[in-house]
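Cross-check.
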Amino acid sequence: MKVFSLLTIVVFGSYIYTGIYVLYVNPKSIVNRLYFIMSLCLAGYTFSSDTIVFI
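Predicted model, tokenized:
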């Protein structure tokens, strides 16, 4: 169980990092903004699925 939890934390961090990095590179691009929003949604989904599994 701890391996799964560690993996979801790593995936959560990578979604947040890539989203912020892409937005940092070119914040005016609509594609980069959409990617940032998508990565935030996926990070939220990853975090919530990890929380629901271990409740």
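The chain has a mean pLDDT of 90. Residues 2-25 form the longest helix (24 residues). Passed to J.P. for a second look.
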